[in-house]
Structures
1.
Amino acid sequence: MSVKTNLQKILTELGSVQLVAVTKYAAPEQVRELLDAGHFVLGENKVQSAAQKAEQYKQYPVQWHMLGHLQTNKAKQAVRVFEVIQSVDSEKIAEAINKEAAKINKVQKILAQVNIGREPQKSGIAPELLEKLLVYCKELKNIRLLGLMALAPDLPDKEQTRPYFKAMKELFDRYAASYGLEFLSLGMSGDYPVAVQEGANMVRIGSRIFGGE
Ligand SMILES: *Cc1c(COP(=O)(O)O)cnc(C)c1O
C-alpha cells in the first residue's frame, strides 16, 4: 500500500491521538509522499539525520521530534532542529538543553522519557526518579516539559505490553496537574493500538506507514 493510504488509515484509527511519523528508515520519496499528503509531524532518532532531513524538506512546515538518546554535546544542534525533544532522561541533559536554548532565545519543548520496563539497554529515567526530574525542569526558564514518553519492552504478544502502558498512564495522571503535562507519548507500529486503549494521546509510528511491517 502507498504511504498516503497507510497514513490515512492510521489517522482515521487514531482520531484525536497525535501521530509522530518516524522517518528514520523511510526513503526520501516516501517522506515526500507523506509531506505532500499534508502530514508534517515527523520523528527521528539522531540529531544529524534530522538536521539533514530538515534541510532537505525545508519547503514544508515540518515539526521534528527527537526520539533517540541525546548526548549533551549534541544539545546545541538539537535545539536548532527540534520542535520537541521527547527523550530527556536526566537533569544533566535537561540543563544542557536549557543552556543552549537560552543562547538562541528559545523555549524548547521536551518530554521526559521513562524506562518503564527497567530495561538496562534502554534509555529513560527510572519511574521513582521522575518527580525529581519534573521538579528540576520546572525551574528552568528555557525548557517547557510537556509530557512523558516511553517504549514498552519488545514482547512477542503485544497484549503483554499493556501493564507497561497502564503504569505510564498512572504516572501521567499522578503528575499531570502539578506539572502541567499534556502529552503521553506511547506506542509504536507493533503496539500502538494497546497504547491508545491505555490512554496514550501521542504515538510514534514508522514501519506501519513506510513499510517493513
Ligand atoms: C523507531 C522508533 C519508533 C517507530 O518504530 P516503528 O516500529 O517503526 O513504528 C518509535 N519510537 C522510537 C523511540 C523509535 O526509536
Note: Residues 162-179 form the longest helix (18 residues).
2.
Amino acid sequence: MFSTKLLIILCAVATAASAAAVRAADEVFRPAITAPHSGDKWTVGSVQAVTWDISSIPPANENQTGLVLLGYIEDGQLDEHLDIEHPLASNFPITAGAVNVTVPEVPNRDDYIVVLFGDSGNTSPKFMISQ
Ligand SMILES: *[C@@H]1O[C@H](CO)[C@@H](O)[C@H](O)[C@H]1NC(C)=O
Ligand SMILES: *[C@@H]1O[C@H](CO)[C@@H](O)[C@H](O)[C@H]1NC(C)=O
C-alpha cells in the first residue's frame, strides 16, 4: 500500500515534471519571421518592416520585449555574423508582430539575415541590402 506521504511526494514530482515541461516549451518559443522574405531588396537608409508570427506566443512570453539583429551567412557557412553592437531594433513588445527598422550603412551583400530574439533567436531567409 502507498502511504499518503508517498502519494503526495509522487504528485509533487509529477507536478514539477509537467511544470518543467511547460517551461521547456516556453524556452524554445520561436516566433517565425514573416518578413523580410527570401530575395527581398532593402536600400540603405530606407525604413523596412520586420514582421513575425504572433499566433503561438505562450502566455508566459506575452510581456517579453524583442531584439532584432542584422547579420549575414556566407554560402556553406554557419556563422551568422550578427552585429550585436548595432541592433536594428530593441525593447519592442514581442506581441506587436512587427517593428520598423532603418537600414544601416552596410556593404552591399545578398546574404543578409535578420534574427529576432524573443525567448530564443529565429533567423529570416536571406535578403539583399544595397546602396
Ligand atoms: C503581463 O503584463 C500584464 C500587465 O502588466 C500583467 O497583468 C500580466 O500578469 C503580465 N503577464 C505575465 C505573464 O507576466
Ligand atoms: C511602420 O511604418 C509604417 C509606415 O510609416 C506604419 O504604417 C506602421 O504602423 C509602422 N509599423 C510599426 C510596427 O511601427
Note: Residues 49, 96, 98-100 surround 2-acetamido-2-deoxy-beta-D-glucopyranose (ligand 2) (CB under 6 Å).
